[in-house]
Amino acid sequence: MINDKAPDGYKQSSIGLIPNDWKTQTLGELATINPSKPQLGDNEAVTFLGMADVSEDGKVIGGVTKLYSEVSSGFTSFADNDVLVAKITPCFENGKGAHVSELENGTGFGSTEFHVLRVKPDSADASFVYRTVYTEPFRALGERNMVGSAGQRRVPADFIRSYVIAVPPLPEQKKIARILSSVDSKLALIDQQITTTQTLKKGLMQKLFTQGVGTQDADGRWQLHTEFQETELGRIPVGWKCLPLSKVARISSGGTPARSEPSYWNGEIPWVTTGEIFFNTIFKTKENITVSGQENSSAKLFPVGTVLMAMYGQGKTRGQVAKLGVEATTNQACAAIMPHKGCDSNYLYLYLEMTYQKNRQSGNEGSQKNLNAAIIKSFMIPLAPFNEQKEIARILTTVDRKLEHLQTQKTQTQQLKKGLMQKLLTGQIRVQPDPQDT
Predict the structure, then answer these.
(1) Rounded to an integer, what distance in angstroms lies between the CA atom of residue 195 and that of residue 250?
(2) 1 pLDDT higher than 50
(3) What is the pTM of this model?
């Protein structure tokens, strides 16, 4: 016989174990869903938020000021302290929405694809409710309850209205919300540091690939260049060369073993596709091929340090670059760029990263505007002396390491937040409210 007795301090509920002093309620009991429109003067200012003005992590990232008369008809209205939830796929599943505040005249209008939750202040804390509707269980169940045709499926208001959550006493709700807000603040700080470092790197790249670091004196100190020359790439130091990529590297591409032959797949040789090329060093791939798969296809084994460029792909994929940290093969949509002696692979990779936007627009005039080997071979490269290439690459790689560290911090903090939300919103971890929460 299964012992389903609840642990001390907890009780069974319709949504699982919750603390004895918590209760279960529907969101419709805690908030008015899609409240009525406010009445303002035609010339009064309001905030307007389109779907693009809210992020996938529940933040307001844009918005404009409009007159009430411009938006009072045909748009969704909301007010300070309301919670917005995107209703349409894929915005709902991706987490589009926000807990809004500081709106013009306390009032906002926006996309008709928002549901609005106006929390009843005596029943719940808006920030707590906002956290609840950004949990994975809410999103997963909402997705299963969508209605409509493919591509236009929406979460109905009745789903939100009837969704049951665990509700702690109001002071504890406020404390939970403040704890999670502090984690959000840490994430925002990390994002700001990432943006600042990316800006620093961009400026450094522009400077180093046009001015270099100089020449080394007898003591190994770098002395800045004083003489420059005009080239088709612009002004670069005297002593540098301006060469097509075909002169500094060998360019090749890969292939795809026959999918119909199982013995060609699930081997030990990494096989890179365009979707895995994203400004990084590739050490692991989603798929591997066998030796026979390589030998019986046009897939070639490329050495460590090979720079890969995506030749095909819509959106931002085409033109992206990565380096190989292991020997690997690629599919035919990837260009493999193997530097000759005298060209440092890190230097080449970083220059192609900097010129990504220009390179990706160099595609042919076909409907897909893809890149090809001939186009890539024609890309011009400012080639510094080898020791200067190494120093430029070292400086920029140091910045990359800082970015990698910040990104790791962000990922770890996001995982911390995810686990903390699960435990706090279900009462697995209890918190003691502070005087400010009462």
Answers:
(1) 35
(2) no
(3) 0.86
